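Record format v2
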Amino acid sequence: MNTRASSRTTMNTAVTTVACEECDLLQRLPELPPGGKARCVRCGNTLAMRPTDPINRPLALTVAAAIVFLIANTSPLMGLSVVGRASSTTIVNGVYEMWQQDERITAVVVAFCALIAPGTYILFMLTVLLAAQRPVVPIWAGEMLRWASSMQPWSMSEVMILGILVALIKIAQLAKVEPGIGMYAVGGLIVLLAGVAMTFEPSEIWQRVEWEE
Amino acid sequence: MSVAPAVTAARAGLISCEVCQLLARPVSRAEPGHCPRCGEELAWRKHHSIQYTWALVVAAAICYIPANVLPVLTTTALGNADSDTIMGGVVLLYQTGSWPLALVVLVASVMVPLGKLVALAYLLITVQRGSLGGTRDRTRLYRLVEFIGRWSMLDVFVDTFTVALVQLQPLMSVEPGPGVLFFGAVVVLTMMAAETFDPRLIWDPTLTHEERHA
């Protein structure tokens, strides 16, 4: 921890003055208490936060999210039975069925928002947070962090689960439907991803990235 | 935090890197160069923000019509085919007694996309006219548009999983309709529009106004 502190103080002067991302106002960041947040005085945008444990806590949550993500994608989301006939579906299955029905663009959009975006987000965050264990973070970790952030708005697990619930209720009038393990796993994934977002502050990584001034 | 009013980074001749938030001194006004820390190209404001956002909003508005008129699902049960539009799906949910869900789908699929288009058009027009009032409220509106956009994808997921599950040929099957494609396009285009819009443009006129009256 001591090696980190020294490299951070040298960069601190450059970091404590920031421009608000949403209104461009220049302002000096106060020393934040653990768990504290700083808001822009002009537009109210969150400028920075200081998580209690900025690397290890999001790392633990990301590892858990990776495991739950695998379960969510391999086990059935829901099952249906009607007059002795049964079927069940997974996320991949939903994408495949859309593709089969010639709605290929929609299939790609669903695959991206339900699988690729959350998957790459988890993978990149995992790499970034593991790389952040080093005293000086390599520059490629910054590049990965940037990719992870651009994936974030397209990762739509929580929208998907609401969509599945609506589908379940719609079908429930036609046949008997049951939620599967995958469904609970997606529920867990949403909580874990929200936890990662809440405990992670990108500037904690950027401050540790090696660069020449 | 005591700050002199409205000293923006641009005013101080600095650019905040869009990727890593480093305050960087640009090489020159015309060619700001790259961020020394992360290598991202520096820009005073997002490139052609207004033009790109308008283009995406117009494209989304065009897709909004077929998205609501064309069927999203076709249910075939015992030889009878039945097509549903998005509104049809809402009515169906309402009739079967689950009005809270009907409301959720109505809000997410019909009102949110339309509201986003109106909100983005309003933001673009006020920025182009250099409006000074309600800057804080307009920034809030922008944040809301950014936050809520993803929820419109709801209907695409509903349709996908209904189709995936109800495949019990020859008894009953559900097929996606062409409306889903346009609906997905509306959501993706409006999300991209929210990303290309630069909220700092909302605040820029206040600065030049203050300078003029100083």
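The mean pLDDT of chain B is 88.
The two ends of chain B are 23 Å apart (CA to CA).
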